[in-house]
C-alpha cells in the first residue's frame, strides 16, 4: 500500500500557559498543504525500514514510522512489514512532516491489516506519538488546542491561493523557541480572527514564537518582509520555525536563490 503524507502550516499560534504535565497549552489553526512525502508499507518476512530522498537525522530505531508500527503491534500482534519512506518535506522546520508520516503509517497499517479502527481511535494512538500527529488523521483545516492534539474542524478555505514555502536552513530547537515566549492570553481571539477577511490577518493573526526567534535570527524577519514586498497577502512562520510561508493571489516568482529551499504550490 502506498500513500502520500502531506504537511501543514500554522495560521496563528498562541502559547497560553504551561501545564502541570510540563507541556504548554496552545491554540492554533493547522491547514494541510500538498507538499508530500511518499510512504509504502507491505507485508514482509521480517520487519524492515528503509528511506530515500532527504537524509533523515537521528537513529533509525527512533523514526516515528517505526514507533507507530510498534505501538499498534503491541496491541494487535501485527505481522512484520517493510516500511519505505521517500522524504521530500524539509525536516525540523515546523511543517509537521514527521507527524504526518506517523499518522499515515497508522492509517496504512489500519487498512493493510483491516483493524477497523475509527478515526477517533487512530487519533488516540497518534496523540501518544506527537502533539501534531492527530491532526493528520482527518487532514483538513482544524482548530487545535490542548498541546495540539485536541482537534476541531474549522471552515477556513484557502483554495485558489498560491503558497510559497521558504526554508533558509536555520535549525530552531524547541527549547530555543520556547525560551523566547512568555505564555499569555491572546489579544485577539484566534477563532474570530481566522474568520475575518484574509486582508486583516497581517495585523491580527500572530505566531507567538516569531518575536523571540526573529530577535535571534533577523534574517527570518527580513525574509518574511520580503514576501510582503513581493505581494503576499499574508506571511508567517509556521510552528516553532524556522520555515516561513506566504499566501499570494497571483503566482509568485522564486526570489530567494539556489541556496534556499523554496517551493511554490497552488492550494486547491
CATH topology call of the largest domain: Ribosomal Protein S5, domain 2
Largest β-sheet summary: 4 strands, mixed
Note the run of SSEs as H and E: EEEEEHEHHHEEEHHHHHEEE
| CATH architecture label name of the largest domain | 2-Layer Sandwich
Determine the fraction of residues in helical runs and give it as a percent range. 25-40%
CATH domain class of the largest domain: Alpha Beta
Rg from C-alpha positions? 18 Å
Shape call: globular
Name the average pLDDT. Answer: 95
Spatial ordering of strands, largest sheet: 1-4-6-5
Domains (count): 2
| Helix/strand/pairing category | alpha+beta
Could you list the spans in which at least 5 consecutive residues all have pLDDT below 50? none
* Amount of beta strand: 25-35%
How many helices? The count is 9
- In whole angstroms, the N-to-C terminal distance is 25 Å
E-strand count: 12
Question: How would you summarize the topology of this molecule?
Answer:
Blueprint: E1 2-3, E2 7-18, E3 24-33, E4 38-43, E5 48-53, H1 64-76, E6 81-87, H2 97-112, H3 119-127, H4 135-138, E7 142-145, E8 150-153, E9 162-167, H5 174-179, H6 190-194, H7 201-204, H8 210-216, H9 218-229, E10 234-237, E11 244-248, E12 261-266
Parallel strand pairs: 5-6
Antiparallel strand pairs: 1-4, 2-3, 3-7, 4-6, 7-8, 9-11, 9-12, 10-11
Helix pairs in contact: 1-2, 2-3, 8-9
What would you say this structure looks like, in words?
- The protein is an alpha+beta fold and 268 residues long.
- The chain has 2 domains: 2-153, Ribosomal Protein S5, domain 2; 162-266, Alpha-Beta Plaits (2-Layer Sandwich), CATH 3.30.70.
- 28% of the residues lie in helices and 27% in strands.
- The chain has 9 helices and 12 strands.
- The strands form 3 sheets. Strands 1-4-6-5 form a 4-stranded mixed beta sheet, covered by helices on one side. A 4-stranded antiparallel beta sheet has the order 2-3-7-8.
- The two termini are 25 Å apart.
- The mean pLDDT is 95.
